[in-house]
Amino acid sequence: MAVAAALRGIDSHAHVMRRDAPLAAQRHSAPERDVTVEEYLAVLDVHGVAFGVLTAPSFYGTDNSLLLAALDSARGRLRGTAIVAPDIGREALEAMAARGVIGVRLNWVRREHIPDVASPEYQRLFALLAELNLHAEIFLEGPKLATVLPTIRASGVKVVVDHFGHPDPAWGVACKGFQQALAGVRAGDTWVKLSAPYRLGGVDAQRYVDELLDAGGPRQLVWASDWPFVSHEDDITYERCLAWLDEWIPDATTRDTVFAESPGALFGFAGSNAIAQEMSR
């Protein structure tokens, strides 16, 4: 089906989920409804967004079957980040990459103990990701992020930080994790998602946006909706998420870099300004 050429931009963080899919034993949440890839693609169409990145939710553990099936059905319109065991083999990663996986997600939020990223198994994983031009995506509370981000960056893998780096609201921009994210942005090896400001403990996201733009400019930033806004479904709309981007970055050229150019290059969407040709094949 041909898609209107007016579609533009990339949503860098969304989820699909099914209530009847097997859940991981250790999880902090579960899906409350079925959220299909067809529904998500329809949301993108209605709001004029061309491409999307599906992020594996933590409650399925390393079972990426739902994610991969969604990527298969999207005909190149979506990419994905998978959750894997650190000892995953090269062939398994390559097989997922061939189906649209462009990164591995480290979803370690709400954990008392987090893995040792300096361990041989994780250093091997990061080296393998770098070799395959995949990135490491991390979702972790800001204070804990500060303890792992320098080591992950030092491995040479590209890093994508979820939800502004999830700073501690008591510290704001002074949160050590956010400061480490700024260091990665300055170095050009770390990208930060401008997403889910409703998960920031009431802090105005504008200060974070300004600091990130000052640190590395728009090419190290991407926008995301966090659709379907798990645990905030009744309060957030897709329109509001798009409006936040307009408010955070009033300059159209800078905003377009965050919305299209930066994620287009990072996630491998060729010619994000040639949407109709890509998706009508």
What does this structure look like?
The chain has 281 residues and is α/β, with parallel strands linked by helices. The protein has helices spanning 37-46, 65-73, 90-98, 120-131, 142-154, 176-187, 205-216, 238-248, 252-266, 275-279; strands at 10-14, 51-55, 78-82, 101-107, 135-139, 158-161, 190-194, 221-223. It is built from 10 helices and 8 strands. The longest helix is centred in the C-terminal third of the chain and has 15 residues, at 252-266. It is globular and about 45 Å long. The model is unreliable at 272-281 (pLDDT under 50).
How would the blueprint of this fold be written?
Elements: E1 10-14, H1 37-46, E2 51-55, H2 65-73, E3 78-82, H3 90-98, E4 101-107, H4 120-131, E5 135-139, H5 142-154, E6 158-161, H6 176-187, E7 190-194, H7 205-216, E8 221-223, H8 238-248, H9 252-266, H10 275-279
Parallel strand pairs: 1-2, 2-3, 3-4, 4-5, 5-6, 6-7, 7-8
